[in-house]
């Protein structure tokens, strides 16, 4: 095979690969992915003479409480779902009713197909509201509160239980005092923030639940997280391509035919 034929063959093979890699890179950067919060640690190691860094993000610990239906439930009861949560108490006369109304609007935005006659799509996101006044917020009280705001119980739990457990969860696991936008009482978690957790229970955002533009951004970020790739897994596309043995056979035949044609042409011209 002469030099020109070899170059042509290389170009024919490399162009599709280059286009795929370019499109893959462009698609990864086209959408702004919500960043991860609450870094646990970075582990440095040396492999094959090169330094590698492994970042470990804080995974929110499980917590078990009672919801408005009287069921004992936990954070980990809905695996594979994105979680949006906040803190409230039913006797609140300031921000809590507004937070609950905005959370209800957010929940309704996930109505299947946007048709209000259809049910809310409960497969995407789970909403959680933690009462910070469990002495007064009994199951009956939070159930009445939920009904007053039109809460769909399928994927929105209002939770009550041990106050100390809830406070520790807010500060130790979610660090709401660091991202609340205002000082938070260490004994009373009164914050306007909605907190977003991904499928791995890692915090991906804090949003002012009183600001409609921030709540809209939260809704968009939920959609983005649903499309987020698990970078620890192999590319499904590459795996499927490798598994198509017939496709590789065709490629080999085409390449062999091209080489045979160019060789024959060279002989005829010679």
Give your account of this protein's structure:
The protein is of the alpha/beta class and 270 residues long. The chain starts with a helix and ends with a helix. The protein has helices spanning 3-30, 96-108, 139-148, 163-173, 212-227, 236-243, 245-269, and strands spanning 39-47, 50-57, 64-66, 72-74, 82-88, 125-131, 156-159, 193-197, 203-208. It has 2 domains: 57-227, Glutaredoxin, CATH 3.40.30.10; 236-270. It contains 7 helices and 9 strands; from the N terminus they run αβββββαβαβαββααα. Strand 1 and strand 2 form a beta hairpin. It is elongated and about 95 Å long. Strands 7-6-5-8-9 form a 5-stranded mixed beta sheet. Mean pLDDT is 82; it is low at 231-239. The longest helix is centred in the N-terminal third of the chain and has 28 residues, at 3-30.
